[in-house]
Amino acid sequence: MEAISPVSRFVIKRREKITALPLYYSGYLLKKYIGEKDFKRFFGEIRGSTIFLYADDTLDTYSERVELQNLLAMDTTKTKTNLTIFTLTLLHEEIQLKIDNPDTAEEWRGFIMTVAKLEIPRSLQLLPGQMLRLEEVLEKERQRTAPSLQPITSDPSCLQHCLRPHSPSGSTETYDDVVSAFPPCFFSVSRHEAEEMLAQNPKNGNIILRPSNDNVNYAITVMQAFNSGPVMKHYKVRSEKSGYVIELDEPVTVPSLNDVIDHFVKIASLYLRPYSQAEDYDTRIEVPFNSPVSQLRPPMARVAPRICTELAPPVTTSRPLPKKPLEEENEYLDPDILEKDSGVLDEKLPQTGQRNHRQAAGWEGKEFIKTTHF
């Protein structure tokens, strides 16, 4: 690694805090995009799997960055003046790096390929001490990028912000609600996996919140469409006691992770859409024929359908009852009159005939019957 004496200790600590990544290598280099005419001079640092480019070695804020995780190929060219030019083919762009010092060009190539591919190139021409340094960097980078079983939740500040009241107003009880504190576009994926999700499923959204490489802070991965093609961008979100700090040119502090996403969507004028995975759902419930549930069902009887018809009125074969003969007028007699005129009645009606006549008329035992006169 080149001497970094011009860079003060304060600047080094500030860069480490901003990037939250370990420093592996640094030095001066020239950089340009394919198609540009002139190279620009930068002070470069390889931190993690990213090259941070500073306009001056005394600045703590980087001007550009190159994500080596997107490296597809690296070609080396030697000029007539013995300068080395590296052509880096990335996922969506190509850049060239020129190294003025031929002694450090091989070191730059070794560190770039090691952190990008997580393996040391075989055709390196370095001293044994430099190779040992590469082996140390490789081990650190493998540990740093290894998936963690419990990222994020180990951060005390995360737990502090993930607690929310769950009781009526006035109560001091709080409950741990870690899952609901994350927005729907949060996925526990790496930088490379987030880029693949956005590139393969652009209809699902173009912004993902994910854990940072340090497993303590967070990062935002955004896919933006330009005329030259889609471009991936990454933003650091630092967890603090006061909230979450979005590390921009002018840092923005918001109280929750949901507000982090809302800030990006608002600034982008609703161009950014939080990523959501599409899910397939079945529309029929089927039970296998040999399943225990199907065996419990009773067999269905196969019978002819029942036909309901209107019932005809019953046919009677018995004779109709004879009509009751009409009773003759003046048939009912008053018993009081009969007692008074018993002598006359006795002459006209015999006693037996009188009693039979009363029973037939149906008035015997009643208090009052209509009086008729002969």
UniProtKB/TrEMBL annotation:
One example of a Gene Ontology biological process annotation: positive regulation of B cell receptor signaling pathway
Keywords: Phosphoprotein, SH2 domain
Span list, region Disordered: 314-333
Sample GO molecular function, one term: signaling adaptor activity
Cited Gene3D superfamilies: Pleckstrin-homology domain (PH domain)/Phosphotyrosine-binding domain (PTB), SH2 domain
InterPro entries (UniProt xref): PH-like_dom_sf (IPR011993), PH_domain (IPR001849), SH2 (IPR000980), SH2_dom_sf (IPR036860), STAP1/STAP2 (IPR039111)
All residue ranges annotated as the PH domain in the record: 22-117
Domain (SH2): residue spans on this chain: 174-289
PANTHER family according to UniProt: SIGNAL-TRANSDUCING ADAPTOR PROTEIN 1 (PTHR16186:SF10), SIGNAL-TRANSDUCING ADAPTOR PROTEIN-RELATED (PTHR16186)
Pfam families: SH2 (PF00017)
Name of the molecule in the record: SH2 domain-containing protein
Keyword Phosphoprotein appears in the UniProt entry: yes
